[in-house]
Amino acid sequence: MIQHIDLGTTPGARLRRLVQLRRDGLITLGGNRNLKIYGTLTCRSGRRLTVENRVFFRDEAEAVTHGYRPCGHCLRDAYLAFVQHLS
Fold first, then answer.
1. 74 and 48 Cβ atoms separated by less than 8 Å
2. Cβ atoms within 10 A of the Cβ of 25, count?
3. What is the pTM of this model?
4. Residue ranges with strand state E in the chain
5. What's 4's DSSP letter?
6. How far apart are CA 81 and CA 33, in angstroms?
7. Which one of 19, 20, 34, 75 is CB 3.0 to 4.6 Å from 70, fit for a cystine?
């Protein structure tokens, strides 16, 4: 999980830093710290997260390792497989 990276204090600075991290391949997924859900960086649900609740991952394996589950909106197939695994 990408932690303790200074993203900046303004929305513009945060956006520029996130774009750079994404371009460098350091993040590919975002997550909700409170709900323990991860999804794509363009997910409509994830875009509504507050800055304080956002976490970022390099890949799905990293998200799962940290106890996060797939988003039911943007990662539908992975979510359905997750739910089926619980049954």
1. no
2. 9
3. 0.84
4. 29-32, 37-40, 54-57, 69-70
5. S
6. 22
7. 75
